[in-house]
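testing teh design pipeline on a random one, pls ignore if ur not involved
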């Protein structure tokens, strides 16, 4: 796992390919949340399509959106879908869900011998700064029989615009009226408390270095840094661990809404979704509808088709939830809108 402030993935390729003789280079930027599976997708795709070089910069969803808007990359990745207002400020793009994953709550409490459990109220209190010590009665209530350390809570959050922050703050806004009124949701918010880290890498670094720390990251970052993850209480009053399966349960509980609008948030699923992890989100690819280079545009379309089809198996192996069939069908319809110099792509 990359630990630099901004991770850049570069997969080099030769000059021959199953898809044609012309070498092309694609560039993308954005979500750190999707970086682990994007790494795998690029490696697997380039192994077959050896004429294609794909570079991906893990700089955060906000940065990816800005680079797409500026026309400096071929595609962006964001954990927050573009709003109608944002779409109106850009040249025409398509945005398609490419995977779903849990935003996990990770912490540095080596004294605990079993996973920490947190209710929505406790989690909101921690990030509001009203819960200041790990022996707070609200946390003790969530963890009966567990001996909690008597040390201060140290909050870590993203420093830059982040789709992971959008997912997490959308969840907190859904479960805490106080959070909704005081802080709200978005790629960037005015945090009441805590230390900012650049990217998911920066947040995991803060947590590893600070006893008593807690923060939010994508699951693979926690696993590769050997950090535990908390179980979060859902609307069915079950404490659920973040996994691909529990994220799939969350996605499926919103299937009808997603069929109408794939931008629908999938946080805090209804009580009928008893096995659903409540802090989950879709990640979106943001792709300009048109571009000048036919060979590059054809390679981009081919790569995206790989992601939403065969690439979903790799996503499942890396703790992401594969896309439901209805969302995949939506994606297929959208990528047919891609053009090169105004002409349809084959």
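output:
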């Amino acid at each position: 796992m990359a630990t630099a402030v901004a991770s850049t993935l570069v997969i080099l390729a030769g000059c021959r390919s199953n898809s044609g003789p012309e070498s092309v280079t694609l560039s993308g930027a954005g979500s750190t949340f999707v970086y682990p599976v994007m790494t795998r997708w690029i490696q697997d795709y380039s192994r077959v399509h050896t004429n294609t070089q794909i570079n991906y910069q893990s700089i955060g969803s906000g940065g990816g959106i800005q680079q797409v808007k500026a026309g400096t990359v071929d595609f962006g990745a964001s954990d927050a879908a573009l709003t109608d207002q944002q779409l109106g400020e850009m040249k025409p793009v398509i945005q398609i869900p490419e995977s779903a994953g849990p935003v996990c709550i990770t912490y540095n409490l080596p004294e605990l011998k079993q996973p920490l459990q947190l209710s929505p109220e406790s989690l909101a209190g921690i990030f509001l700064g009203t819960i200041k010590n790990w022996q707070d009665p609200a946390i003790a209530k969530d963890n009966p029989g567990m001996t909690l350390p008597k040390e201060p809570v140290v909050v870590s959050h993203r420093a830059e615009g982040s789709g992971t922050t959008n997912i997490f703050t959308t969840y907190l806004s859904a479960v805490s009226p106080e959070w909704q009124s005081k802080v709200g949701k978005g790629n960037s918010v005015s945090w009441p408390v805590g230390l900012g880290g650049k990217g998911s890498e920066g947040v995991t670094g803060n947590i590893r270095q600070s006893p008593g720390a807690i923060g939010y990251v994508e699951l693979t970052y926690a696993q590769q840094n050997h950090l535990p993850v908390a179980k979060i209480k859902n609307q069915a009053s079950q404490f659920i661990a973040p996994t691909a399966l529990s994220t799939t349960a969350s996605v499926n509980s919103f299937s009808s809404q997603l069929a109408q609008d794939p931008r629908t948030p999938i946080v805090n699923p209804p009580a009928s979704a008893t096995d659903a992890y409540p802090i989950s989100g879709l990640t979106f690819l943001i792709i300009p509808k048109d571009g000048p280079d036919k060979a590059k545009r054809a390679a981009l379309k081919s790569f995206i088709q790989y992601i939403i089809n065969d690439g979903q198996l790799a996503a499942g192996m890396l703790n992401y939830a594969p896309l439901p069939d209805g969302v995949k069908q939506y994606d297929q319809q959208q990528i047919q809108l891609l053009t090169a110099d105004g002409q349809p792509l084959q």
